[in-house]
Amino acid sequence: MDVELPQLPFSLRTYGPDGHWSYEDGVLSGWAGARQDRFVPPTDEALDPASDAPRLLGAPEGDFQLIARVTVGFAAAFDAGVLYIHVGERAWAKLCLENSPDVPTVCTVVTRGHSDDANSFTVEGSSVWLRISRTGRAFAFHASKDGKRWTFVRLFTLGDEETSGAALVGFMAQSPMGEGCVVTYDGIEFRPDWPKDLRDGS
Fold first, then answer.
1. Total domains present in the chain
2. In 3-state terms, the chain is what percent helix, strand and coil (to 5)?
């Protein structure tokens, strides 16, 4: 199913399980079902990785910033709303507002074969602003409590410039340990450029 958001210059397509995605009055909503996640554990080769969660993704051209305020209906550990980047089946990244495991936290996962996992800062309440950016083969993650001053979270690559330039980006919901959770995104904004300074709060 294709979804058009007026803020984005590219179409979005659904991937993975049914996320019941809907858009109304500037708010995008999605739902993760029970035990849905994308994570490839680095600690146990024998463990089957959780491999699917509802995603709504599109393919922007060139440099960009994708911004949204993410609100999560937390019910269980690791429930999360996500801005997501997909380059390949084992090459993708998540910027999350996650119940980690019982405190809302901005966290990141970068998967290159296996996933890593890193927490940034905790959040009061169930909402935070998230931003993903790309220039060439580089991606950056930022988060903000007010949508104005941004905290630098992570800078990384996912393959070469060609594969990164073809990345799919967008939205994901997850509930790895729970029975499901609802995620909403508002204040969605697209900017066709890279931040001027990753660390000055702009």
1. 1
2. 0, 55, 40
